[in-house]
Amino acid sequence: MSSAFDADSADLTLETRRQAGAVVIGARGEVTVFTSPALRQEIRKAVAEKPGRLVVDLSETSYIDSSGVATLVEGLKLMQPHRGRLVLAGMNERVRGVFEIARLNSVFRVADTVEEALRP
């Protein structure tokens, strides 16, 4: 499984791949009310495969708004029925701050890198 999805020109590019038995979705750009539907679609496609782990690589995500956060919360909920784990990786300070303000940094498993997120 490997696909690329250009959500809205330069706003968001998504790349989905399999790595170490997990599904990794890389998000490059801004996750906003305009681009979060594309991320939601990619997460839903990934969850349909029932992976043990879904990693959302945010290392190239420059900005995320409340709709982007809601999309990730939805992904977390979608993973629960089959006991899968959603891990957020590589958040910069700006993106991490959004999660800290919403107090969601304790709800999500957060890793500094994709490699760390893939460790058991």
Query: Mind summarizing the main beta sheet?
Result: 6 strands, mixed
Helix content: 25-40%
How confident overall, as mean pLDDT?
Answer: 92
CATH architecture: 2-Layer Sandwich
What is the CATH C-level name?
Answer: Alpha Beta
Given as residue ranges, the uncertain stretches (5+ residues, pLDDT < 50) are none
Give the strand line-up of the largest sheet: 1-2-3-4-5-6
The secondary structure category is alpha/beta
Radius of gyration: 13 Å
**SSE order:** EEEHEHEHEH
Number of continuous helical runs: 4
CATH superfamily: STAS domain
- What number of structural domains do the residues give? 1
Say how many strands there are. Answer: 6
What descriptors fit this protein?
alpha/beta; 6-stranded mixed sheet; Transcription Regulator spoIIAA; globular
Structure notes:
It is a single chain. The chain starts with a strand and ends with a helix. The chain is globular, with a radius of gyration of 13 Å. The longest helix is centred in the middle third of the chain and has 14 residues, at 66-79. The model has no long low-confidence stretch (mean pLDDT 92). The protein is α/β, with parallel strands linked by helices and 120 residues long. Helix content is 34%, strand content 36%. Strands 1-2-3-4-5-6 form a six-stranded mixed beta sheet. The protein has one domain (2-118): 2-Layer Sandwich (Transcription Regulator spoIIAA). 36% of the residues are buried. It is built from four helices and six strands, in the order βββαβαβαβα.
